[in-house]
TrEMBL record:
Catalytic activity: 5-(methylsulfanyl)-alpha-D-ribose 1-phosphate = 5-(methylsulfanyl)-D-ribulose 1-phosphate
Gene that this sequence comes from: mtnA
Catalytic machinery residues: 238 (proton donor)
Pfam family for this entry, one: IF-2B
Biological source species: Okeanomitos corallinicola TIOX110
Pathway named in the protein's UniProt entry: Amino-acid biosynthesis; L-methionine biosynthesis via salvage pathway; L-methionine from S-methyl-5-thio-alpha-D-ribose 1-phosphate: step 1/6
Molecular functions per Gene Ontology: S-methyl-5-thioribose-1-phosphate isomerase activity
UniProt name for this protein: Methylthioribose-1-phosphate isomerase
InterPro entries to which the protein is assigned, alphabetical: IF-2B-related, IF-M1Pi, IF_2B-like_C, Initiation_fac_2B_a/b/d, M1Pi_N, NagB/RpiA_transferase-like
Organismal lineage: Bacteria, Bacillati, Cyanobacteriota, Cyanophyceae, Nostocales
Family to which the UniProt record says this protein belongs: Belongs to the EIF-2B alpha/beta/delta subunits family. MtnA subfamily.
Keyword Isomerase listed: yes
UniProt binding sites for substrate: 45-47, 88, 197, 248-249
Site (Transition state stabilizer): 158
EC annotation from Swiss-Prot or TrEMBL: 5.3.1.23
Role description: Catalyzes the interconversion of methylthioribose-1-phosphate (MTR-1-P) into methylthioribulose-1-phosphate (MTRu-1-P).
């Protein structure tokens, strides 16, 4: 299996997702500031994966603080948390993981060395839990898929695979489980402009596992659905509001509208930690805006004329009424029923 974030020999190893599929490179992270930069520049990306990376970043920051005074240590750790929180605004898993690490620090009594050790163990627990969570999402997910045809064609957007989590994936976790159970014919992967996570990462993951995959450009989805080529859409999520409105990679919203127009079921697969019960609805979710070069530059080539303006939101919000079900590690829920997913197991 593919693990994008690994704790090894006192440092964190990240698969450099900016270089795939051309090059498989591993980056070694020793310091919290380098982890923050790796998250900001998308060496590590995908909501659950940046949560796990940030948890290790908190530990790296904790071991950089040289003091035996508890208050001084906790103040120093708050600064590390602030730095990591400032990297990317939309994926709530980042804030969730940092919050869990801070809570661990406040609740652990003992010497600074003991608190640091507990923080490392907590980061490792968050890492291990995420893999189990994704496997549970995958297994609940394939059962929620349409019963016919026997072998489904699933369209997905962006990369919600092993690379975007601690391993196995959310939307691609559902795909993996469906493949294992003989319920999958093929994946259609949207290329996902502007950063092409679908064409580069989802396609690469499928190829690694021998899952048949067809890459299409984002503007081909409606045509494919009209031709009856797609049986279900399964996507991941960066943050889900309490009412089920879901922020995910830009382009997800238009895909959901197109799916509704063609009667194709539209599933969101995400861990409970991606649900932000503090936000009543999707309009409250902060949307990251990234540098315009992601639009005007392809490789080394500038593709637009000078004198134009750019708008580059990295995520959009799909209204709950376009979502067939939200698949979590605790089962599949109607978007209006999300409160139940906290208690089920
Ligand atoms: O900007 P990215 O590549 O971090 O965005 C990732 C996505 O939008 C994924 O679909 C989402 O995080 C779900 S990952 C399991």
């Amino acid at each position: 299996m593919l693990y994008p974030v690994v704790w090894q020999n006192n440092s964190v190893l990240l698969i450099d997702q900016t270089r795939l599929p051309g090059e498989y490179a591993v980056v070694e992270i020793h310091r919290s500031a380098d982890m923050a930069e790796a998250i900001r520049t998308m060496i590590v990306r995908g909501a659950p994966a940046i949560g796990v990376a940030a948890a290790y970043g908190m530990y790296l920051g904790a071991r950089e603080i040289e003091t035996s005074d508890r208050t001084e240590f906790l103040n120093g750790l708050e600064k590390v948390a602030q730095l990591l929180r400032s990297t990317r605004p939309t994926a709530v898993n980042l804030f969730w993981a940092i919050g869990r690490m801070m809570q661990t620090a406040y609740e652990t009594l003992g010497t600074i060395t003991e608190i640091q050790q507990t923080l490392l163990e907590t980061a490792q627990t968050i890492n291990a839990e995420d893999i189990q969570t994704c496997q549970a999402i995958g297994d609940h997910g394939f059962r929620a898929l349409p019963k016919t045809p026997e072998k489904l064609i699933i369209l997905t957007h962006c990369n919600a695979g092993a690379l975007a989590t601690a391993g196995y994936g959310t939307a691609l976790g559902v795909v993996r489980s469906a493949w294992r159970e003989g319920r999958l014919a093929r994946v259609f992967a949207d290329e996902t402009r502007p950063r092409l996570q679908g064409a580069k990462l989802t396609a690469w993951e499928c190829v690694q596992e021998g899952i048949p995959v067809t890459v299409i450009t984002d503007n081909m989805a409606a045509h494919c659905m009209k031709q009856g080529l797609i049986d279900a859409v399964v996507v991941g999520a960066d943050r889900i509001a309490a009412n089920g409105d879901t922020a995910n990679k830009i382009g997800t919203y238009s895909l959901a509208i197109v799916a509704k127009a063609h009667n194709v079921p539209f599933f969101v697969a995400a861990p409970v930690s991606t649900i932000d019960f503090t936000l009543a609805e999707g309009s409250q979710i902060p949307i990251e805006e990234r540098h315009p070069s992601e639009i005007y530059q392809v490789g080394e080539t500038i593709i637009t004329p000078s004198g134009v303006e750019y708008y580059n939101p990295a995520f959009d919000v799909t209204p709950a009424n376009l979502i067939t079900a939200i698949i979590t590690e605790n089962g599949a829920f109607s978007p209006g029923d999300l409160v139940k997913c906290q208690n089920n197991s």
